[in-house]
Amino acid sequence: MPSRDHAAQQQAVARTVRRTLLALVAMLGFAFALVPLYDVFCNLTGLNGKAASQARAAVAMEIDESRWVSVRFITQQGQGLPWTLEALDEQFRIHPGGQYSARFVFTNHADYPVRGRAVPSVSPAEGSLHLRKIMCFCFQEQTLAAGERRELPLVFQVDPDLPEGIRDLTLAYTLYPVTTPSSAGDDGAEHSAGGET
Amino acid sequence: MASEQPRKAVLQASESEGATAGGAHVGEGHGSAPRGMLRWLLTTNHKDIGTLYLIFSLSMLFIGGIMALVIRTELFQPGLQMVQPEFFNQMTTMHGLIMVFGAIMPAFTGLANWMIPLQIGAPDMALPRLNNFSFWLLPVAFLLLLSTLLMEGGGPNFGWTFYAPLSTTYAPPSTSFFIFSLHIAGISSILGAINIIATILNLRAPGMRLMDMPLFVWTWLITAFLLIAVMPVLAGAITMMLFDINLGTSYFNAAGGGDPVLFQHLFWFFGHPEVYIMILPAFGIVSAIVPTFSRKRLFGYASMVYATGSIAIMSFLVWAHHMFAVGLPLVAELFFMYTTMLIAVPTGVKVFNWIATMFRGSISFEPPMLFAIAFIVQFTIGGFSGLMLAIAPADFQYHDTYFVVAHFHYVLVPGALFAILAGAYYWLPKWTGFYPHEGLSKWHFWLSVIGVNLTFFPMHFSGLAGMPRRIPDYALQFADFNMLSSIGAFLFGISQLLFLVVIVKCARGGVRAPACAWEGAVDLEWSVPSPAPLHTFEIPPQTRDGQIIR
């Protein structure tokens, strides 16, 4: 009797251990799955203002002349890049539906070529789904020669279905050095920010 | 029976009558038990391992406490007098890490190891050798963690919450070792949790249904599930950190397409259940002590179980209340505000049930009861400041100020730590066979209460007045509050030496304790002799309604 009970108990323990180990591995997988899931969630809902980083086709749409939306551009220097980014057209007052073009100037202040990228962010986050960028320098990395000054456009539309309460949109660009070379090259890696960025 | 007990409280390998009915010696695996150092290194006995965890956690409490005193010395007066800011940041970081992972969690694990088999009538834990391994991982982990203080660039200095990129891009070289030590400690917790679940689900004495178990066992069962669920998430997050630091990935680096806020989500998805991991066993301890010293059954046993379960489930839905100021969308702020306020409801149920247990009871105020009642009052105060923090727009003012520091220290120190002390005083007679010295214990209690409140209550005010967290120097208007806190901290810290004295005296002798050391104590552990023999319940007792049937 006792040995059979003992064996049954051992089996029950083994089964519990197997199940908890399975749950453990599942939670570990969940943690790593959260990385792409986070981006999926943000893309679907536009909640982190990152939706405005892909090109969207220009759409012929009704221009809603009954409302004005103020669109403002902010630029920020990221760490470790001897560049500046300046918005020549800092503020627009537009009708949703219309197509507009804003001018930006990149300047490389160093005496060597540098590769960088402007990462956009839209505020308020709910508005980012409704800001359509038809052409934007933010879609590609830029390589500037020593001392080069380059003017690039941003062509955009604001959807007429922008929620009523949103009257201001702010688009912020932050400059970052390119360290994960999508195309091979020593420039970006050599002159990127110190340390493992 | 008392005169037969050996004088030394160190557990002897000899059997005594109460433990093995009829003297049968089941499961005899080892010949003669090893003695000395080897005994402690190789033991698979839940009592020995429980003792090891408790001694380890007490040492960590003192080490973390010294770090706190370094902090409070610097903050005693405005100005930078004592330490460099870089070292100060290491002290705040290590104090948090050591207290959370080295003191509180192992203390509860030690109590679990000692008491769960005794309370369910089991001879030992389900996986005794795994138990030994789980313990010995901890000294390794913390030796590694403490050694980072001596490494080039110093130890971790980015707060115990180690947000990226401060902890990746801008971190000292020792960070990879910090991550490694956290991995080891995490594995220890996980293995312990597996052991506890396997034990509670499979090794209960015949007749003990789940709803017959003492509440300490219930709270640990639920805590163990929380550990299984969230420790892997921490492991994932710190692994991503390790990759960002050493392999050039960009999980948390915006320049590479990652997101620092992702780190915060991952950390707090672990971090919030973690704080419930640190309090649920405390609830279990208080739920054992209050009925004993009120000589009255716990009020609302079933609702206590359901409340604990609800708290555990809801703890997964509140994490972003630590992130209210990070730029979450409005819908998220609202969601997390509502869930956080909601979790106060089952918590309140528990507090009311403890009070209802005491109502019209026959109450006596021995040291365990003193600490338990102090827990109820002071944990509730901590809960109130938590409710204030839950109000998202109000939190914009409180976030990253000393108000938050006040809140979590109230729930952790006069909360979790007092519950651990209560449990120690309650079960010391079972462990050693002697009552802790009552006079010294009461001195310990009152000095601790005064000290802890003098330390942390002013922090509510300095926080509301605008003093930020994690700063080595502060503006002059915070000076008086800080001076009070520092005085209180030294009072509290030094009072803990009294606890050490009580334990050492108790291990050596004192007033002998019978098997049932406290009038009104009813759980299974009080049916075995005091001190508990090394092997107990080798033959499982027959139980009904949680009591042994004679």
From TrEMBL, chain A:
<dbReference type="InterPro" id="IPR007533">
    <property type="entry name" value="Cyt_c_oxidase_assmbl_CtaG"/>
</dbReference>
<dbReference type="Pfam" id="PF04442">
    <property type="entry name" value="CtaG_Cox11"/>
</dbReference>
<comment type="similarity">
    <text>Belongs to the COX11/CtaG family.</text>
</comment>
<comment type="function">
    <text>Exerts its effect at some terminal stage of cytochrome c oxidase synthesis, probably by being involved in the insertion of the copper B into subunit I.</text>
</comment>
<keyword id="KW-0186">Copper</keyword>
<keyword id="KW-1133">Transmembrane helix</keyword>
<protein>
    <recommendedName>
        <fullName>Cytochrome c oxidase assembly protein CtaG</fullName>
    </recommendedName>
</protein>
<feature type="transmembrane region" description="Helical">
    <location>
        <begin position="21"/>
        <end position="38"/>
    </location>
</feature>
<keyword id="KW-0735">Signal-anchor</keyword>
<dbReference type="InterPro" id="IPR023471">
    <property type="entry name" value="CtaG/Cox11_dom_sf"/>
</dbReference>
<keyword id="KW-0812">Transmembrane</keyword>
<keyword id="KW-0472">Membrane</keyword>
